[in-house]
């Protein structure tokens, strides 16, 4: 099942995507976080809803979770990306946060902030936590996942590299676009076999497969849940492959008018125009 949040008459509504159409879901289901918390019962209601469809192309898609609880992200998690940065191959997971105010719709503009001249793209698979919890074992990790999205870990490199802590450089407004919908976990039995690509103005910059993660999704969930409670609706950005602007020679950063597209097989695509702030 593919679940979206879209705008209708100034209100956020839930829908189920069927091909090129949306089946609007009843307001009684609440928000996306309500469906996630509601477990199998509400998911079954969402799957069973029938009604007059809307054309997907005629609605404005919002972030599937307009205000995620936590946005967690792992760095240096594809070997080719590690090599292009010149960093040593990590032996421990490298984690940082993107603030919830960075969440952005799948087709909304990416703002190029006045304070940065080095904004970069990072194609990523995004995990949406469902049941969550603390001290989740690797074996239990698949059961903690509600679904998956396409994401772009937009990064202001000048801010990111100015200090040893990356949070500010990763958290500018609009710098966490994700979507276009949540594909529920039952439709993705193995998230470690998905091709992932990024394009800038139609030029393919990144191409890999989630099979190439240094630390896979189950390891990520097990590790980070040793530290904090993962809650329903939390997001995990799982790492980016090689091909980012930082790794090019000379380095190439996003500019006003650039179009960034990220695709992941089975999950769809997101696309944004870059606009000066």
Describe the 3D structure.
With 277 residues, the chain is an alpha+beta fold. It has two domains: 2-61, no CATH class; 71-276, Fumarylacetoacetate hydrolase, domain 2, CATH 3.90.850.10. Helix content is 14%, strand content 35%. The protein has five helices and 19 strands. Strands 1, 2, 3, 4, 5, 6, 7, 8, 11, 12, 14 and 17 form a twelve-stranded mixed sheet that branches. Strands 9-19-18-15-16 form a five-stranded mixed sheet, with no helix packed on it. It has a two-stranded antiparallel sheet with strand order 10-13. Strand 2 (11-18) and strand 3 form a beta hairpin. The longest helix is centred in the N-terminal third of the chain and has 17 residues, at 32-48. The protein starts with a strand and ends with a strand. The model has no long low-confidence stretch (mean pLDDT 96). Keywords: Metal-binding. This is Fumarylacetoacetase-like C-terminal domain-containing protein. Residues 70-272 form the Fumarylacetoacetase-like C-terminal domain. Belongs to the FAH family.
């Amino acid at each position: 099942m593919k679940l979206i949040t879209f705008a209708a008459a100034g209100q956020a509504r839930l829908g189920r995507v069927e091909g090129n159409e949306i089946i609007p879901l009843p307001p009684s289901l609440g928000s996306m976080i309500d469906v996630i918390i509601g477990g199998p019962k509400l998911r079954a209601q969402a799957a069973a809803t029938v009604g007059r469809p809307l054309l997907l192309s005629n609605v404005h898609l919002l972030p599937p979770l307009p205000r995620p609880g936590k946005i967690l992200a792992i760095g240096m998690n594809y070997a080719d990306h590690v090599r292009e940065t010149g960093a040593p191959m990590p032996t421990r997971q490298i984690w940082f946060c993107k603030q919830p105010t960075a969440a952005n719709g799948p087709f909304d503009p990416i703002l190029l902030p006045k304070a940065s001249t080095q904004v970069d793209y990072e194609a990523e698979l995004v995990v949406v936590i469902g049941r969550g919890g603390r001290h989740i074992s690797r074996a239990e990790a698949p059961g903690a996942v509600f679904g998956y999205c396409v994401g772009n870990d937009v990064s202001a490199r000048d801010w990111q590299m100015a200090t040893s802590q990356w949070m500010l450089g990763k958290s500018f407004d609009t710098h966490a676009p994700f979507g276009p919908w949540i594909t529920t976990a039952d439709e993705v039995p193995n998230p470690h076999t998905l091709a992932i690509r990024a394009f800038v103005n139609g030029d393919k910059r990144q191409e890999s497969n989630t099979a190439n993660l240094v630390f896979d999704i189950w390891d990520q969930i097990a590790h980070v849940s040793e530290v904090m409670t993962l809650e329903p609706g939390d997001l995990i950005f799982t790492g980016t492959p090689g091909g980012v602007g930082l790794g090019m020679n000379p380095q190439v950063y996003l500019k006003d008018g650039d179009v960034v597209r990220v695709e992941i097989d089975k999950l769809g695509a997101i696309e944004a125009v870059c606009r000066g702030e």
